[in-house]
Amino acid sequence: MKLHYHLIAQIISSLRDVFVDRRYADKVVEFAFKKHPKWGSRDRRLFAEAIYEIVRHWRWYWHLAGLPDSEHNHPELLTPEKLWHVWSAYWIMAENELPFFDEVNGVRRGAIIERSKQEVSPALRHSIPDWMESRLSRELGAAWPAIRETLNKPADVYLRVNTLKTERRSLKTRLAQDGFTTETLKEIPTALHMRQRYNVFGMAAFKEGMFEVQDASSQCVAPFLQVEPGMKVVDACAGAGGKTLHLGALMQNKGKIIALDVHDWKLTELRRRAARAGVDVAETRVIEGTKTLKRLAGYADRLLLDVPCSGLGVLRRNPDAKWKLSNEEIDRLIIEQQDILTRYSALVKPGGKMVYATCSILPGENELQVQKFLAAHGDQWTLEEELKINPAETGHDGFYAARLLRKPAAPTPPAVVEAQETPVEAPAQEA
Ligand SMILES: C[S@@+](CC[C@H](N)C(=O)[O-])C[C@H]1O[C@@H](n2cnc3c(N)ncnc32)[C@H](O)[C@@H]1O
């Protein structure tokens, strides 16, 4: 296969952006595509595949390149020379011939193949940091190896049909007419699975707001909140609004959704997306302090807490998270999640419901959080239902959601008829 030097040089430079500048892999790919508008579909595919595969299997290719395992996550030790060697290991393992570039002159194919046959630890073989391997095998036990294997595979693309503008059958037909094949998912009525990889954001149907790109698991969260048209809903960690838009469609654009987030720029993106999708019922508010929440106390029929989390359920989409997360960061997130759950639950009116959701597979971020909350607030809340999506069983992202009911206020006791005051005899005057 003929390779252009500048394409591989861009791969090396983009890997540096991910591992040294700690940028997200998807942003790095997007940036490179914008920088090289003349790349054809073959070069774009080669580029994106190399970035995702190398980031996903970084520790393994680092080892195959003959570099010391203890240095695989030390950005300060990363040099362009090492990056060329890691890319070479990836390229050889994908059964390709190395090109005649000076940078790969010293690479020995035989040594790489030889190393690939040696016995190594599961964490190294599956490119998982040691701390993560220990934590996940401790928390998930026998379920972890199968989940680990799934999370190391490329993610499929799913569309969520925007039922405010179309319905699934019509969208499927429309996409087929435009040359795109999709499949319906029996268990998720809004989902279409794209078999081939396309730049979906360039499609006319996307620009017209007919669909959003959203994993099948993520599409289960908004319906789980059991919203109805006309309700008052708060989406408290709304971000760029993936779930807000879905809630708006389920509510048939009737009622109100208050979309909150601590980042204004995410809410700006939410408004842009809502306009495209035709969602009129969403109002955005930045959380600037306790006042924003106090004003909404007891307001919501439904509350969605799609809390910040480790993202361990979506590693297929964001493989760089493996190299950026730490035990300490997860512990910090667990404290933040419990704080959000406790403080924001006051937004729900008696008889209302909230969903606590994460895209994590760690019980410590999921069911254990809900149990802790109920242990402290079980007088006011009950657990209605839990949803645990195991990526190894479904092939979709790992997700968790729990729906809790705020117990209806106890009926006010009938007014007690005040007993007529019997005049108290004036105490005898002390002598
Ligand atoms: C998992 S993301 C939400 C994704 C979004 N719901 C969606 O479907 O696209 C979590 C969001 O919580 C926000 N966040 C972080 N801390 C928060 C807090 N204390 N209160 C509200 N939102 C917060 C983050 O900015 C982030 O956008």
TrEMBL record:
Its EC number(s): 2.1.1.176
Organism: Prosthecobacter dejongeii
PROSITE patterns: SAM_MT_RSMB_NOP
Catalytic residue positions: 359
Region (Disordered) location: 411-431
Major enzyme class: transferase
Family stated for the protein in its record: Belongs to the class I-like SAM-binding methyltransferase superfamily. RsmB/NOP family.
Ranges where the SAM-dependent MTase RsmB/NOP-type domain occurs: 147-407
Superkingdom per UniProt: Bacteria
Binding site for S-adenosyl-L-methionine: 261, 306
Keywords of this entry: Methyltransferase, RNA-binding, S-adenosyl-L-methionine, Transferase
A biological process term (GO) from this entry: RNA methylation
Coiled coil: none
A Gene Ontology molecular function term of the record: RNA binding
InterPro entries (UniProt xref): MeTrfase_RsmB-F_NOP2_cat, MeTrfase_RsmB-F_NOP2_dom, RCMT, RsmB-like_ferredoxin, SAM-dependent_MTases_sf
Protein name: 16S rRNA (Cytosine967-C5)-methyltransferase
